Backbone:
């Protein structure tokens, strides 16, 4: 087993709310590590709408999802948080001495004074296309994400979908694939117009194929695809040879292991005390989209407020002997020193 990492607070989820919690904790000298299943920070902002504008962040009239993630990373820099990305927290256990042990599927173990669950809607899961028997091929020759482009070099590929992911991977993989066929149910694409134009140019020059219709049948054995049948909108049913299929049908969110940690849950959400954002287990907090209380709004600004109040209570678990003095960043030299501006 790996070495145990000791920290004041372990934050589960590096979405906007988990990130801002680092700031509020940092002002109170509370150190944090963050774990996220995704390989990047920003949660829904980074994964679901990186380029969409957000108009309701107080004091910022307009910022994209990606822009907000970057700004939050800049804001928390002075507190040197440690990130453990691409790992899922699987277990949270209370230890006898008012601390917690947290384990990840990446074989890491943390010991901390408090746990902050900022897990949003849970983990992002790819939507499975409705093709009979597709699960037999998943992981082996049906892939919902591209981890290593080189794995597809010299292969006959079928990409399915009409959004940005399908188009981006079509354009990235076409030069290294033996042959690439894009399948979409209609001849209109939701992706960026520039990507659509590039894809159409490749089809016009004969460098890739585009089929308008749906994959209806898969052929292969032992998890390895050899061909698929496409029911095209013009009535034809071509059989296309392939080594791998990459469907990009978007993402859904699944709660994941949060429900197994002994926390009181209400319809897949964690009820909290609105004075502290503590759960039914003292020392475990829940902030952001994952929590519920009367009047809860699933907004980023609500999560920021929740993080600020959580930090006030978490401070007492980390420094039980210390008194907490309320201070403003505008006027406190002490806080400004922590931020590296005084
Ligand atoms: C299309 C769209 C537009 C939106 N527009 C706005 C808007 O204009 N204004 C606004 O205020 N809000 C908006 N929202 C809502 C906003 O994105 C959410 O309120 C916000 O992302 C919640 O932040 P969070 O940090 O609580 O959760 P999330 O952003 O969901 O982040 C949670 C993170 O936790 C990770 N995680 C989950 N389980 C585990 C686990 N077991 N181990 C490790 N990591 C885990 C996930 O991978 C994820 O990265 C929008 C949402 C969508 C989908």
Residues:
């Amino acid at each position: 087993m790996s070495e145990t990492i000791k920290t004041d607070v372990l934050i589960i989820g590096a979405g906007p709310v988990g990130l801002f919690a680092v700031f509020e904790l940092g002002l109170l000298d509370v150190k944090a590590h963050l774990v996220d299943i995704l390989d990047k920070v920003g949660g829904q902002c980074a994964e679901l709408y990186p380029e969409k504008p957000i108009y309701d962040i107080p004091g910022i009239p307009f910022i994209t999802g990606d822009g907000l993630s970057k700004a939050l990373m800049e804001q928390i820099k002075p507190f040197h948080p440690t990130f453990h990305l691409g790992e899922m927290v699987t277990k949270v256990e209370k230890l006898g001495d008012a601390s917690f042990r947290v384990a990840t599927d990446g074989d890491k173990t943390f010991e901390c004074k408090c746990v902050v669950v900022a897990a949003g809607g849970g983990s992002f899961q790819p939507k499975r296309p409705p093709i009979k028997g597709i699960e037999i091929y998943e992981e082996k020759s049906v892939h919902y994400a591209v981890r290593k482009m080189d794995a597809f070099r010299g292969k006959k590929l079928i990409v399915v979908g009409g959004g940005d992911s399908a188009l981006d991977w079509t354009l990235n993989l076409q030069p290294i694939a033996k042959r690439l066929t894009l399948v979409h149910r209609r001849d209109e694409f939701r992706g960026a117009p520039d990507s659509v134009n590039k894809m159409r140019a490749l089809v016009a020059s004969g460098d890739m194929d585009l089929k308008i219709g749906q994959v209806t049948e898969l052929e292969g054995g032992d998890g390895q695809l050899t061909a698929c049948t496409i029911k095209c909108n013009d009535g034809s049913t071509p059989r296309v040879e392939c080594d791998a299929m990459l469907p990009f049908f978007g993402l859904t969110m699944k709660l994941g292991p949060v429900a197994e940690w002994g926390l009181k849950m209400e319809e897949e959400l964690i009820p909290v005390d609105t004075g502290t954002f503590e759960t039914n287990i003292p020392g475990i907090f829940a902030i952001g989209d994952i929590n519920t209380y009367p009047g809860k709004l699933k907004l980023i600004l609500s999560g920021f407020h929740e993080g600020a109040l959580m930090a006030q209570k978490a401070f007492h678990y980390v420094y039980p002997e210390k008194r907490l003095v309320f201070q403003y960043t505008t006027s406190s030299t002490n806080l400004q020193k922590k931020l590296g501006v005084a």
In short: The pocket of flavin-adenine dinucleotide is lined by residues 12-18, 35-38, 43-45, 48-49, 54, 56, 88-89, 118-123, 256-258, 288-289, 298-301, 303 (CB under 6 Å). Residues 300-318 form the longest helix (19 residues). The mean pLDDT is 95.
